[in-house]
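ok trying this again, last paste got cut off
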Amino acid sequence: MKMEKHHKFSIWYVLIAIWVVLIVHDVMVNMFSIEHIPYSDFIKALEQGKVLEVAITADRIQGKLKTTQDGKEVEKMFTTVRVDQNLSQLLEKYNVTFKGIMEDNFLKNLASWIIPIFIFVGIWYFMMRRLTTQQGSFLSLGKKAKVYMEDEVKVTFNDVAGVDEAKEELAEVIEFLKFPGKFTKLGGKLPKGVLLVGPPGSGKTLLARAVAGESKVPFFSMSGSEFVELFVGMGAARVRDLFSQAKTKAPCIIFIDELDALGKARGLGFTGGHDEREQTLNQLLVEMDGFDPTVGVILMAATNRPEILDPALLRAGRFDRHILVDRPDKKGREDILTVHLRNITVDFDVDIASIAAMTPGFVGADLANLINEAALLAVRHNKEKVGMIEFQEAVERIMAGLEKKNRLINPKEREIVAYHEIGHALVALSLPETDPVKKISIVPRGVAALGYTLQVPTEDRFLMTKTELLNKVAVLLGGRAAEEIHFEDISTGAHNDLAKATDIARSMVKEYGMSNELGQIYFEREHQPKYLDAGLPTGKDYSEQTAKTIDEEVKKIIDAQFYVAKDILTKHKKIMEQGATLLLKEENIEGTRLKEMLLADQK
């Protein structure tokens, strides 16, 4: 990305400008210069008939005379000190026009000073324009909201998929903007503020633009961070300016993206006081209270951190309608993929349902990136159409990271990685209610992954049983168990698995009430935003004896599931060794091949 170069104002600019003005002044003086000649030369020129006209005072003579310059006869101005008292007789003798009043060259004096001043002002204006463009001006409101008129917003609900519930909620807003009379006739009022809440990339901004596109009204868009400036009062002025603009274009939509940058709860920081951000938020609250909801100005905002917003923003009469734009389910992902595949040339083997099944938890932005990655891979493979192979590879690139085929791993480490990954896969294939194993690989990916086992769920899940959680822990510990069985030693490669397994076990004990020793008690303190405690240490809501029991229960779960994994791999040691050998040879194997080997061994 090209970085913009910012120039700082310097006193050298002023010195250079003054130097230029002095030079221009000297040039202008020289252009209108008058040559001073001796009186004797004047008499000679007079006798030769070269004097054209003169102006005479008591002690000076000024006028025009003819002279030769570069072979051409030209006229020039001259001045001399008057000596001869009988000059009038000489002038009459040689038929020269003369007068007794000296002409002051007003234009010469004006040009020699006014023109340099204009040049100086021009240089100053040009420099200030550049500084204003690059650094912003403290004399103006600076950035304005981006305004899209009704014929400029091309996005409609046909371009938004996977958020059907949110679209239904917003249909009422569209109806109000199109036919406000239907609501005002019954005395109904639409909510002043609509807050779109959802994870990053879920389509909140796109949905807001689609509302404007469906309603055919102007769309004012501004980010929350653009309101807050260094200079006190600037943000509040921008809020006033935004609402005043919107009222002139009503009916219209005001959209504030990343509202949390502007609407963070007040009075919780150590800086205290009445800072610029708080002034801006106060002005926004005042404007929301002040405008009439019947004029047709709808305020929409988006955030992925609603828990840190100021309560005054969320009360009735302000942002009182909250619309969740959640991660899409499998059907929603299919619809999103269909929208993004409109401009992609795909092969006949592409199955949208299969791609949607491989991407649980993906939001709209992730799916758009997935399709783009697949298209780039097809170009790299010199294909004219994007096939299913490219989509599968794109999923692996996004979930596991970029392949590092040039990363050199010594044979010993490579063997450890192979047994580690086969251990994960075998435990997952042996236990019930686990996600199917899609692929096992020992090709390094991402920053630190030396291999991976890709498990793809068959459906979206929102609840998990105790058995499923225990099996997840066992699968995570399968890699460490395989190392211990085959090498009778363990490596550092399981650190990430141990962290995930411990988190699951601790959540089972402290949050889900799945400990026989402690029972159905919730021990985890509610997760609060970081800004609330500002890093201060907080005490536990339970005794040290209870904390000790929690640690013991977590250890029991980890130990029990490690022995479960170890028992499975000991039982299928032959398959583990065959699978590791195959993986060392081919680097990548499908989960179905390992499953077939396991089923054949069980017969």
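PB: full thing came through this time. The two ends are 59 Å apart (CA to CA).
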